[in-house]
Amino acid sequence: MSAVTRRTALASLGIAGVLAVGAHARAAQAPAVPAPPSATITLPAAITSLTAINTSSLVAAGMADGRVAIWNGRDAAPMALLKPHDARVLAVGSTADGRDL
């Protein structure tokens, strides 16, 4: 999806002004120094989406091969690799109580 297409989609949601102001403010600031990672994970496929799981300290990562990795943020390997889809996972999210992904 091109930047123009994304802006058009965001404009229809009424948040294009926020996007433009944020991009302009970001360009005026000095580049941030990346924080050193406290843990690194290697996954078997490219990550296409990422979310924190509500009411927990876990993270879910959707991957290009249709799998979802559940990670605790500390260990070098995911706690679970789920294979719920045959196609790439475009977005992941959790319910408000954090029970379902």
For the structure shown, list the relevant keywords.
101 residues, alpha+beta, 2 domains, 4-stranded antiparallel sheet, globular, disordered N terminus
Task: Give an overview of the whole structure.
The chain has helices at 3-12, 16-28; strands spanning 47-52, 59-63, 68-71, 80-82. The chain has a 4-stranded antiparallel beta sheet with strand order 1-2-3-4, with no helix packed on it. A hairpin with an 8-residue loop joins strand 3 (68-71) and strand 4 (80-82). It contains 2 helices and 4 strands. It folds into 2 domains: 1-33; 36-101. It is α+β, with helices and mostly antiparallel strands.
Per-chain topology:
Elements: H1 3-12, H2 16-28, E1 47-52, E2 59-63, E3 68-71, E4 80-82
Would you summarize the structure shown here?
By secondary structure, the protein is of the alpha+beta class. The chain has helices spanning 3-12, 16-28; strands at 47-52, 59-63, 68-71, 80-82.
| Structural classification | alpha+beta
**N-to-C SSE string, H for helix and E for strand:** HHEEEE
| Separate helix tally | 2
Mean pLDDT: 74
For the largest sheet, list the strands in their spatial order: 1-2-3-4
What's the domain count? 2
N- to C-terminal separation? 25 Å
Low-confidence stretches: 1-26
Strand content: 15-25%
Rg on CA atoms, Å: 17 Å
How would the global form be characterised?
A: globular
Helix content: 10-25%
